[in-house]
């Protein structure tokens, strides 16, 4: 007596999603989050019905290294359900030394995309034909996409972040994760490595706080964006710390509860040099922190040096930084 297909489907999912990924560092650019095929290959040989369920589960995440391979899938006619039904998460690896476009017109059910950018000398944004705005290299994105990961961008300046918001099809994006080598300093206006004196593992903000001001402006058009996660190495050997907020009545944001944010300076990407030089001025520090507290609330816009409003995505509720260790603990040179 054979098992009900509903139960077989649950067994397949349990085998797939409890198995370790083939890579020991799945967060690293170019590494797959999927386990090896042998995890469920035996079940695919059991019967035609079982094989269909195995393929559906296996191709739920599609790892693909070249845009041309998408065209091959379409032209070959293999697994038509892969594009129209099965694939929910698309993991694209950009390996070419020139910009390539990923035509996703036939992927109708994709809800999340990860783009691993392995081209340090090229920006992941480009200008669409007949368009004036820089976008990411995706064409014909489904409006079902709610999650996007950008991995491997060494210098994530606000122009790259703006390219995310400009990309047609990202209008319903809810979560954004970026694995990057540096972060934008809103004081000196360049990308800098993170250097803390101590070794914090992470930092979480609620209520729309935490992003560099130029990032919040770039992402402001994403009206459904709720969460941003930034994973970045801490190179250490800095002179500043996040500190701690011991005042239980500290005003972190009128929209949030006290003590939501754990550091009194509301660190949001400022480099170690700027923290040492500019935060030493109490008047400047107080004004800068107050500005960050009220990003998107319209209270400090008239005081901005650049004359632009400090806006943010209207539904942004959570910003998380995860700090990874640098191998060997050696500080790398900035480019």
From TrEMBL:
Residues 252-264 have a biased composition (Low complexity). Residues 240-251 have a biased composition (Polar residues). This is F-box domain-containing protein. Residues 240-264 are annotated as: Disordered.
């Amino acid at each position: 007596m054979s098992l009900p297909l509903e139960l077989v489907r649950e067994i397949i999912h349990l085998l797939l999603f409890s198995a370790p990924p083939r890579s020991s560092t799945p967060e690293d650019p170019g590494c797959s989050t999927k386990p090896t095929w042998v995890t469920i290959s035996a079940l695919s040989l059991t019967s035609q019905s079982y094989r269909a369920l195995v393929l559906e589960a296996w191709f739920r995440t599609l790892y693909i290294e070249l845009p041309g391979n998408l065209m091959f899938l379409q032209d070959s006619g293999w697994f038509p359900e892969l594009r129209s039904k099965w694939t929910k998460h698309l993991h694209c690896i950009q390996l070419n030394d020139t910009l390539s476009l990923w035509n996703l017109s036939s992927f109708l059910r994709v809800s999340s995309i990860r783009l691993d950018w392995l081209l340090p000398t090229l920006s992941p944004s480009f200008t669409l034909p007949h368009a004036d705005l820089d976008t990411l290299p995706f064409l014909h994105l489904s409006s079902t996409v709610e999650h996007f990961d950008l991995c491997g961008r060494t210098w994530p300046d606000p122009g790259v972040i703006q390219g995310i918001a400009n990309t047609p099809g990202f209008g319903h994006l809810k979560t954004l994760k970026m694995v990057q080598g540096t972060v934008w300093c809103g004081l000196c206006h360049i990308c800098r490595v993170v250097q803390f004196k101590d070794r914090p593992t992470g930092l979480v903000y609620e209520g729309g706080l935490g992003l560099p001001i130029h990032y919040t402006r770039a992402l402001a058009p994403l009206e459904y964006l709720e969460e941003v996660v930034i994973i970045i190495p801490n190179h250490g050997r800095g002179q500043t710390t996040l500190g701690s907020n011991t005042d239980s009545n500290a005003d972190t944001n009128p929209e949030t509860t006290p003590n939501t944010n754990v550091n009194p300076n509301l660190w949001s990407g400022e480099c170690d040099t700027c923290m040492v030089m500019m935060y030493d001025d109490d008047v400047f520090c107080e004004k800068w922190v107050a500005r960050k507290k009220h990003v998107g609330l319209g209270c400090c816009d008239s005081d901005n040096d650049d004359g632009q409003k400090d806006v943010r995505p209207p539904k942004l509720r959570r910003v998380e930084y995860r700090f990874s260790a640098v191998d060997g603990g050696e500080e790398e040179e900035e480019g």
